[in-house]
C-alpha cells in the first residue's frame, strides 16, 4: 500500500472538476484520448519509466466518498446533479503504457488514456504526479548507477526527500534502476527492498571514546557492522576500527566495512584502504557518503578513490540538478476530432499512438518511431501495451524484481553516448509519415 | 489527517534502529538533547518555520505495530529482547520549538528534543523530513509573496510536486506564507484552504470554437469563471472572452477573469487589459501562469506587466532553485556530557539552547542571540517554547489562520534587505558568551 493511493479523487486540481462539470452541463460524453509524455529536459538524454503500478492501482480504486462529495458541496461551485454523477463515478477507461523499467525519450507517449472525456480529464493531476516523480528519480538513479561503474549504491535520501511519499517512492525507484539497498526501513517492509544502515556521529559522540562506540556496536551487530570513522579524525578512526575489527575476528566474527562521511574522499579512501590492508583486513569494505550524486561519484572515481559502495542521499533524492520534468498530459483525440498543437517547443501530435523501437545487429537501440496506434512499422518492436481495460488492470502488476531486471536488460542495450551524465546526446526519435500527415 | 502521520516508526533510516539497539545492548538510558537547525543556504536570507503540527502529531502517535515488529524480525538484525522493547515503545520526551510561521536564520535551533537517547534518536529521520520540506516551501512561498508586491498568488503545483504528500504540504505551506488559494482540492478539504481553478487547453480544444468553450463554461459557472485565452491566439482569445463576458453581463452575471498561460506576459497582459477595458470590463482580472516563481514574478512586474494574480506552479512546488535545505539534527547533550563539533562549516555548539530576538525602536528585527537554554538575555524575546512534555502536546495546535497571521506579522518586522530575492544579506546571529565558554 502506498500513501498516494489513499488520497483519492480530490487529489486533483480544481479545474479538472470544473471542466468535468462544464462537459457534464453540455452533455458531452465523447470518448477522448489523452497522451502523457515528457518534453526535452536539458540535463537528461533518456528517461526510465516508473510509477505505472501506483497509477493503475489508483485509477482502479478511484471513488468519491460521501465526505468528498460533502466537501465539494461546501465550495458552492457545483450543481447537485453533477455531484450525484460524481458519487457514482468510476474510472472505466483503457490505458496503454510502457512497462515500468522501460527506457524512453522526449516526446514519446508513455501512457495513453482513452475514456469518456470527463473520466479521462479527472485523472490528469494524479497521473502526472504519480508517474512524473517516480520517472524523475528512476532516471536520476540510473545516471548514478552508470557513474558508479558496478559499485554498490544505497539510497540514503529519506531525511531530506520532499516529504514522506517522496521518500517511499525514491526507495522504490532507485531499486528499479539498480540500487542495492535503501536506508528506508518502511520501504523494506512495503516493497521487500534490502535495507542497510550503519551509525551516525551522534552514536560515536554518546561514548567517551570512539573505540568504545565501535565495540558497543559490534556487540549488537557482530557480523553486520559498518563503523563510521570520521567523527573526530578519519585516520585515527580507521586505526580504532582496525583494533575493534581484529577483536571481532578473534571472536569468530567480522567487520563488514567502514564509512567515510566527510573530507577528501579520494585521499582518505586510499589511506584508509592501506591501513585496513596492512592489518590484514582486505575484506573490510569502504563505504562513502556525503553529498554524492552521479557527478560526485564520477569525479572521485576518476581521481582514483578506493571506494566499494556509495550512500547516495539528498541530491539524488530530490534530483537536485533537475528537480522536475516537463511532463504533460494532452488531449489528442475527442470524439472524431484529432487534436494537435503546433506551438513552437510545445508540439502535440494528434491521435492515439504507438512507439516503435528499432535495434541494430547487436541488439542495441537504433531509433524510435512514434506512429499512429494502428500503424505497423516493419522491423520494429511496439513499446506501449494495453495494461487496463474497462478500468481494470489486465493481469497482475509486474514484481519489483521483474521491473528491475527489465531496466537492467534495456540499459545494457542503450548505446554509451546516451548514457553520458555530462554530454547531451539526442537519441533519434522520428514521427511516422502517417502521423505527420494528420 | 496527513499522509506522513500514518507512515509510523518504520519511516526511518535503518541506522536509527541499529543505533537504538546498540544503546539498548549497552544499557544506555541517558537523557539526551538533540538540536534541529538549518545550515546556511546560499540562495536564502531567512527561513519560515513550518511542519511542527505534523511533527508533534507524529511523535505523539508513534507506535510499532505487530506487523512492524514482524518485519523487523525478518531482517535478522535485531535480538528479541530489543524488539520486545520496541513493541512497548512510546515517545515520552519533551520538545521545545519555534511556533510555525516564525522567521529564523541559519544555525538557529528551531526544534530541540530531550528524551532518553533511544527515543530521541529514533525520531530523527521523521523530524528532518517533516519539518525540512515544509520549511523549504514556506520559505520559497514567502519569497514569491514578497516579489508579487500584494498581488494574489495561487498554488498551481500539484501535478509536478515530488509525489503526493509533497503536494499536500505545498498547499499548506504556501498558505502559511500568504498565498490566497490552491488548485489542490484535497488541501481544501483537509485544511480549509480556499480552492481555485479555471480550465485547461484541453477544454477549449474539446469544442469546435473557442467562444463555444467559454460559453459552455460560463453556463456551468456563471459567476466564477476564468477563461483561458491562449489556446489558439491570445488576442483573439481576449476578443472571444469579451464577447461571452458581455453576454454574461446582459444575463446579470459576470466574468471573474481571464488567464494567460504562454507568450510574452508583459506585452500580452497590457494588450489584453486594453481590450477588456475598451469593452467596459474593467473589473475582469488578469491571471497569469506558466513557469512563475519569485524571479519571474519580479521580472515581469519590473517590466510593467498588468497582472492581477499569478498561478505559481512547478518551480515553487519543488523549490527549484534550492530543492533541499541543509537541515540537521545533532546531539548536543548526552547525560552530563555537553557535545560539540568544531569542524569548519559544520559547527555544532553544546547543550540545550534558546534563541533570543532583539527589536529596534520600530519593532523591526535587530539581531538574534543563541544562548544556553537557561541563560537570560536582557531586552530580548525568547523564540523557542516548550510544546511537548512527556510525549504529549501542550495545548491545541495553532490553527492555520493563526500561523498565517503570525507569519504576516513577523514578515512585516523583517527589514527589507533580508527580503531580497537576489541579494545575499546575512542577518546578525550571535552566540552568547556563556555558550561559547562551554
What does this structure look like?
- Two copies of one chain form a homodimer.
- Chain A has 438 residues and is of the alpha/beta class.
- Chain A folds into two domains: 251 residues, nicotinate phosphoribosyltransferase, CATH 3.20.140; 121 residues, TIM Barrel.
- Chain A has 17 helices and 19 strands.
- In chain A, strand 12 and strand 13 form a beta hairpin.
- The N terminus of chain A is likely disordered.
- Chains A and B meet through helix 1, helix 3, helix 6, helix 7 and helix 8 of A and helix 1, helix 3, helix 6, helix 7 and helix 8 of B.
**CATH hierarchy class name of the largest domain in chain A:** Alpha Beta
Which strand-content bin applies to the residues of chain A? 15-25%
The multimeric state of the shown protein is homodimer
**How many strands, which pairing sense, and closed or not: the largest β-sheet of chain A?**
7 strands, antiparallel
What are the defining features of this structure?
homodimer, 438 residues, alpha/beta, nicotinate phosphoribosyltransferase, TIM Barrel, 2 domains, 7-stranded antiparallel beta sheet, 17 helices, disordered N terminus
Amino acid at each position: 500500500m502506498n500513501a498516494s493511493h489513499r488520497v483519492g479523487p480530490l487529489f486533483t486540481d480544481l479545474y479538472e472538476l470544473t471542466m468535468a462539470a462544464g462537459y457534464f452541463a453540455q452533455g458531452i460524453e465523447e470518448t477522448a484520448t489523452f497522451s502523457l509524455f515528457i518534453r526535452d529536459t536539458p540535463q537528461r538524454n533518456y528517461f526510465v519509466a516508473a510509477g505505472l503500478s501506483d497509477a493503475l492501482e489508483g485509477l482502479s480504486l478511484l471513488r468519491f466518498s460521501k465526505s468528498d462529495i460533502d466537501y465539494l458541496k461546501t465550495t458552492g461551485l457545483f450543481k447537485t446533479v453533477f455531484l450525484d454523477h460524481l458519487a457514482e463515478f468510476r474510472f472505466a477507461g483503457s490505458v496503454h503504457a510502457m512497462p515500468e523499467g522501460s527506457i524512453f525519450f522526449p516526446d514519446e507517449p508513455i501512457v495513453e488514456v482513452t475514456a469518456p472525456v470527463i473520466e479521462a480529464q479527472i485523472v490528469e493531476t494524479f497521473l502526472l504526479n504519480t508517474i512524473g516523480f517516480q520517472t524523475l528519480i528512476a532516471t536520476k538513479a540510473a545516471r548514478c548507477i552508470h557513474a558508479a561503474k558496478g559499485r554498490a549504491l544505497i539510497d540514503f535520501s529519506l531525511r531530506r526527500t520532499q516529504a514522506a511519499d517522496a521518500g517511499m517512492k525514491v526507495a522504490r525507484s532507485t531499486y528499479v534502476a539498480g540500487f542495492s539497498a535503501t536506508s528506508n526501513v518502511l520501504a523494506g517492509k512495503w516493497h521487500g527492498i534490502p535495507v542497510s544502515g550503519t551509525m551516525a556521529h551522534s552514536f560515536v559522540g554518546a561514548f567517551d571514546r570512539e573505540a568504545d562506540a565501535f565495540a558497543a556496536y559490534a556487540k549488537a551487530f557482530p557480523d553486520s557492522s559498518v563503523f563510521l570513522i570520521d567523527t573526530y579524525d578519519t585516520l585515527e578512526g580507521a586505526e580504532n576500527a582496525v583494533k575493534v575489527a581484529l577483536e571481532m575476528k578473534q571472536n569468530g566474527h567480522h567487520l563488514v566495512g567502514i564509512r567515510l562521511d566527510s573530507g577528501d574522499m579520494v585521499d582518505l579512501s586510499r589511506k584508509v584502504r592501506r591501513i585496513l590492508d596492512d592489518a590484514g583486513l582486505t575484506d573490510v569494505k569502504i563505504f562513502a557518503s556525503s553529498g554524492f550524486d552521479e557527478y560526485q561519484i564520477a569525479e572521485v572515481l576518476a581521481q582514483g578513490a578506493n571506494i566499494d559502495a556509495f550512500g547516495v542521499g539528498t541530491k539524488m533524492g530530490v534530483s537536485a540538478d533537475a528537480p522536475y520534468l516537463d511532463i504533460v498530459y494532452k488531449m489528442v483525440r475527442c470524439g472524431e476530432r484529432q487534436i494537435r498543437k503546433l506551438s513552437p517547443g510545445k508540439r502535440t501530435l494528434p491521435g492515439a499512438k504507438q512507439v516503435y523501437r528499432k535495434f541494430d545487429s547487436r541488439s542495441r537501440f537504433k531509433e524510435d518511431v512514434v506512429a499512429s496506434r494502428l500503424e505497423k512499422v516493419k522491423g520494429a518492436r511496439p513499446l506501449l501495451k494495453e495494461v487496463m481495460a474497462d478500468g481494470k488492470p489486465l493481469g497482475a502488476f509486474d514484481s519489483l524484481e521483474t521491473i528491475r531486471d527489465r531496466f537492467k536488460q534495456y540499459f545494457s542495450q542503450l548505446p554509451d553516448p546516451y548514457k553520458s551524465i555530462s554530454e547531451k546526446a539526442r537519441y533519434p526519435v522520428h514521427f511516422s509519415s502517417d502521423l505527420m500527415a494528420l
